[in-house]
Amino acid sequence: MQHLELWQRWRQSHDTAARDALVQHYLWLVRYVAGRLMVGMPDHVDQGDVEGHGCFGLLEAIARYDPDRGVRFETFAIPWIRGACLEGLRAMQWAPALRRRVRQLERVRDELMAVLGREPSAAELAEQMGISVEEAERRLQEAGTLAVLSLDEALAFDDGETTALADRVADEEAVDPELESQRAERREVLARAIASLTEQEQLVIALIYQEGLIAKEVSEILGLSQARISQVHSKAILRLRGKLSRMKRDLVS
């Protein structure tokens, strides 16, 4: 049955069989969002668990979707799926310990940036923290993981709406001029933040968030190991979060 007929059945009579068929039809969206979130996650995080949380977001999106607003379902659903995946990741047992380690790293990083006037290297962080360079690099990757989990907060404005990295391109079918103007402003802020990254970081971000590639595919394209791609991604996301937070403060001050 065509998915348009399924939408009609669901909207007219809340036919649960039609809803379940819509879930099956759009499961690829859940896999797509979860796959991108897995970049830089600890090895013990299972993508299947993340996808399970994402399915709750898909169900919520199906329940709330109104095609009369002129927005494609895929555009509408991705923030709901992403939000559900992130909530699931934040609730995992490893998250509190991760936050403690990252807070310590960021405190030292901020102190060094104030002294050096630039981003400190892993070796400089290691020396300041009294740990090995390898441990500092691991913690930087953890910081990138946490930044992914909290990046939506950095992208949120006063009305609570966010502009996710995946949603930088305007929906051509959007019909609300005021809403589109707000989104355009947020995309501009995000574009300026991305422009502050190194060329390699911008390329990795573009391949993951614009082209929808996974770490293995990016590593093959760039000729780098998956571990290196994960490191570049984590550092880029961490820098983006800091840049966006500062830009938000400037906008509201």
TrEMBL record:
UniProt cross-references to InterPro entries, sorted A to Z: RNA_pol_sigma-70_dom, RNA_pol_sigma70, RNA_pol_sigma70_r2, RNA_pol_sigma70_r3, RNA_pol_sigma70_r4, RNA_pol_sigma_FliA_WhiG, RNA_pol_sigma_r2, RNA_pol_sigma_r3/r4-like
The entry's keywords: Cell projection, Cilium, DNA-binding, Flagellum, Sigma factor, Transcription, Transcription regulation
The keyword Transcription regulation belongs to this UniProt entry's keyword annotation: yes
Transcription regulation as UniProt keyword: yes
GO molecular function: DNA binding; DNA-directed RNA polymerase activity; sigma factor activity
Gene Ontology biological process terms in this record: DNA-templated transcription initiation
Stretches assigned to the RNA polymerase sigma-70 region domain: 22-94, 102-178, 193-241
Classification via Gene3D superfamilies: 1.10.1740.10, 1.20.140.160
Name of this chain's protein: RNA polymerase sigma factor related to flagellar biosynthesis
Organism field: Symbiobacterium thermophilum (strain DSM 24528 / JCM 14929 / IAM 14863 / T)
